[in-house]
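Case study B.
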Amino acid sequence: MATSSQKSGDVVVEARNIVKRFGGAVAVDDVSLQVRRGEIHAVVGENGAGKSTLMRVLAGVIAPDGGDVFIDGQRIETGAKNSISAGIALVHQELSLVPEMTVAENIMLGYAPTRLGFTKSSDLNVVAKKALDEIGVSVDLNERISRLSVALRQFVEIARAVARQPRVLILDEPTATLTPAETDYLLNMLERLAEGGMAVIYISHRIPEVFKIGHTVTILRDGKQVFNAPLADTTPESVVDQMVGRELKRDLQSRRKANPGAVVLDAQGIRAPGVNGIDLTVREGEIVGLGGLVGAGRSELVRAIIGADNRTAGRVTITRQGTTTVLSTYQSSVRNGVAYVPEERRTDGLALSMSVADNINLTNRKELSRWGVQLRRRISTFAQELADVVGLRPPVITREAGQYSGGNQQKIVIAKWLGRRPDFIVLDEPTRGVDVGAKAEIHRLVRDLADKGTAVLVVSSDLPELLELSDVIHVVRDGLIMGTLLAGEANEKNVMSLAAGEKMVDA
Amino acid sequence: MAKETLTEVITLAKSGSDQVAKKRSVLPWVADNGIFIFTALLIIFSAVFVNGFASLVNITDVFHRAAPIGIVAVGMTFVVISGNYLDLSVVAQVATSAVIFLAVSNQYGVPLAMLAALAAATVYALVNGIAVGYFKANAVIVTLATTYIGVGVLRFFSGGSIFFGPEDGPIRAFGTSKLGPVPYSALVLILVTIILAFVLSRTNFGFLVKSFGSNESATRLGGVNTGFVIVGAFFITALAAMIAGWVLAAFSNTAVSSMATGYDFQALAAIIVGGTSVFGGKGSVPRTLLGVVFVSVLTNILVLSNISFGYQQVALGVLIVIAVTVDALSRKAVKR
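Model:
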């Protein structure tokens, strides 16, 4: 623990009462924090706790609905440019480098020194070299980014932030893609930068890292600030408890009695970009949950299984009424009883400018037509029935899908697949951005499907949801299944520790 | 709307944040309905103020000019609604069809001539459709290239010469016949419009073209063979261009590789003015017919008013810029 180096410098950056809403959902709810010169301030929380949103507000990338950001006591107007000139640098979670440009060009991108509007590569190189030296990384300045390893790209990204000589450096999950040795290197580097007087805000899921270098910690849960104190005053166990927050004993009464039958879906040796060899089976009437952190490879896995993305290796079969069929393309999956509720419902799930009835018709058109001609009356009664089954409110099937709220849109996506009476359904983040009421209804629909014998595979970053729905949970990290937990033995702690890959607490 | 019950209305009112209210804006309304009013106003204006517009001879002339472009436009509506902007190669397709139709019919008769033109149309549809639908190539560039290829091949085979049809016979008879003031070519336009309107609005294929134009990804993830849908959209366009080629050949009794120059742009003008969105997913075949009427009448009154061809081009260009801007702005206005 880095308590010895606790600094009591001046407050450099302060966020006061930040509120940020997305539609009806509150992503950041009245959060305040202060970071001092030379301090490493850790921000921790589960997926979706609001960490990244808060940092994007701090960096001026998004405008808050309430609250202000101050640098040295001066209020900063929202705007990435204002924040950069005030000395805030954000290293994004997603790498934002230009692959076809060189290291030096990327580091200097956006504020290259110019002479009469022209850049001179020797000028670029001098400043870029200085930034790389500062973080102690040696890499050829003229190498293209596309030829670097992921870890080196991460360091170039940091060099890019450091080159601006910021007063505040924000890093969002910088170690997610790094090996332990690379992680150690990065943590040491951050300590050096802090000793040099920089204020560092460090976002991570990984509790041991936080305790290794952090001075203070802010814990976010569901957008709220639940803890803010020096790390010396707390323990890893207490931090995990507060991240998770909820009573760890689950209400077992609400669980359906799982009675899985024969294997319906059988996926063996699945490989794809981000998926490194996974075997998975789902039985009739069984709900299998895929847990893990964002970027662990869960969505890639399910898309590879059903053929929505190409797989590089592996074999998938579906067994219905005793007949086993190999699933090769996505179309063959859909033809053979597979349904897919994608992660991005607005771009992949629905045609927002089309009516509810048309969206439902898309997946059921063969049943609702004769010789290729639409049977309009049948389409509308069919769509109306499904809208009622999923509890669409208001159940007006002529209305455009885009006019409904997130929860209702998700119900439409589920409705369009329900009509096909699927044998296997994949739901990727089925309730993300959905209000509490609709969430409960969607959970009921998923359980009903399983009770009727459908094999269900759910991807969720929402731990309580995963625990509540799943009969079995596979925890995915780095494109591999790191552990499998049965409904009775899974809890938020052991799923999280498998997902984060650290033995931080005993399961 | 009247079907909404009171409880639904109350739920709607109460759920406030749950429902995203459609912003009131006049632009989406204009984009949706403007063409009906503008066309009516233009015809009334022309009949009252433009000398010679309301004569039988002139009306027949308008029909004659509108028919081939109109047939191309109603067909190309499918490509536009699929979100692939347009098919520039209709210029080459119409000429190819006309040249083959006259050249083959002179020696082998009309039925074989039609079959030969159909074969050429199929080749165009497959090349354009496969490149765009399966290989995700940009439609504008692909069809620009196939225009070059098509016109080039045509020049090569014709040696740059003009083909003439027989002085009499069924083709000539068709090209000169009328039903009252309405030439047969315009009847073909109406027939093609009715058939394609049905295909677009009532069949699964038409539905998928629209669905693809609204959201390609959601359509693909619905289990649809999207490549096939795009080939189909280009095939409908090619069939329409082929028929337009026959009609044009019959009317003028000549065929040459450059005969359909400008059809790409004029068809696009009619489609967009009719209210079909260049962003895909929204529009209809009857709307395109209205757009054809509007553009044809506008061109006609410019001709009647002795306004030079250069200014006519300017007018058409300005019209497209306005229509496309209204389309873009109305899309923005309904976006949340």
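The CA atoms of residues 307 and 328 of chain A lie 6 Å apart. The remaining cases will be described in the next quarterly update.
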